[in-house]
């Protein structure tokens, strides 16, 4: 007789309609209330840039991570490879890239020779869904984690150089020298706890757009009756799981679960033998 719910994913907002079944019979009624919308969120987390050319990139001041480098970001792409970020020194460097559709590589050199830390996922990362990358380097070890896959950790040499000395600009999504950059979206890029404003820089950079567009930004309205638009590698689909409708665009009506249950109960009642009474 009572039901309630809390919408927590902004992808399925706004609430455009409410569908109640089996309320047209005599004696049936329904009452509903849609509570207030409370918007909150972290703009740093949704700060994104879209790279639509392999030769496009963003550049920022030199990354200062001499003894500790903690880098995290999210990406989504349909490309099988591309450079996420790179910062060079005279000999030292730090770099994170998508080397194949199932592998991310974190590499750097602090003077002891190049060191690579790799994570192979076994599942495609170019499925146009968001994936998280977390890379860290300190004087003792380096680690790389992709989504919830096991992290790869490598120990630093017991004796050797420990300072990462960089002097060029920090490049995001590509570099001025490498031809194949990253195609897709990067967001929530943090270096040692500081979020880079990708959107602000993208507004003044050719080949890079602020935010992260997709098929759903143009065609979400085609998903009817509370159907949710879901990005696909080469298009989109409509998720009708939160709707009482079916079809490619959630446009075909179906009976609600309550209506179906009530129909079953009525059928049972009609088939049951009727009781008789005897009067004196």
From TrEMBL:
SUPFAM superfamilies: Concanavalin A-like lectins/glucanases
Superkingdom of origin: Eukaryota
Domain EGF-like: 213-251
Domain Laminin G: 47-212
InterPro entries with a match to the protein in the record: ConA-like_dom_sf, EGF, Laminin_G, Neurexin-related_CASP
A Pfam cross-reference name: Laminin_G_2
Disulfide bonds: 185-212
Keywords noted in UniProt: Disulfide bond, EGF-like domain
Listed SMART domains: LamG (SM00282)
Protein name: Contactin-associated protein-like 5
């Amino acid at each position: 007789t009572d039901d309630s719910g809390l919408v927590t994913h902004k992808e399925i907002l706004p609430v455009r309609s409410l569908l109640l079944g089996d309320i047209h019979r005599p004696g049936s009624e329904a009452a509903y209330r849609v509570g207030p919308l409370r918007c909150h969120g972290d703009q740093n987390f949704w700060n994104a840039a879209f790279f639509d050319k392999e030769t496009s990139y963003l550049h920022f001041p030199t990354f200062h991570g001499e003894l500790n480098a903690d880098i995290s970001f999210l990406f989504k792409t349909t490309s099988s490879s591309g450079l996420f970020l790179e910062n060079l020194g005279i000999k030292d460097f730090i770099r994170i890239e998508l080397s194949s559709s199932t592998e991310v590589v974190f590499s750097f050199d602090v003077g002891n020779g190049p060191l690579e830390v790799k994570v192979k996922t076994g599942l495609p990362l170019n499925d146009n869904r968001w994936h998280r990358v977390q890379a860290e380097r300190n004087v003792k070890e380096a680690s790389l984690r992709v989504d919830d896959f096991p992290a790869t950790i490598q120990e630093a040499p017991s004796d050797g150089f420990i300072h990462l000395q960089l002097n060029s600009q920090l490049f995001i999504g590509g570099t001025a020298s490498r031809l194949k950059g990253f195609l897709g979206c990067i967001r929530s890029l943090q270096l040692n706890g500081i979020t880079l404003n990708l959107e602000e820089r993208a507004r003044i950079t050719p080949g890079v757009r602020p935010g992260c567009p997709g098929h759903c930004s143009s065609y979400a309205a085609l998903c009817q009756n509370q159907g949710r638009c879901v990005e696909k590698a080469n298009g989109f689909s409509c998720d009708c799981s939160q709707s009482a409708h079916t079809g490619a665009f959630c446009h075909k009506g179906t009976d609600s679960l309550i209506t179906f249950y009530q129909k079953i109960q009525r059928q049972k009642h009609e088939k049951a033998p009727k009781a008789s009474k005897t009067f004196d």
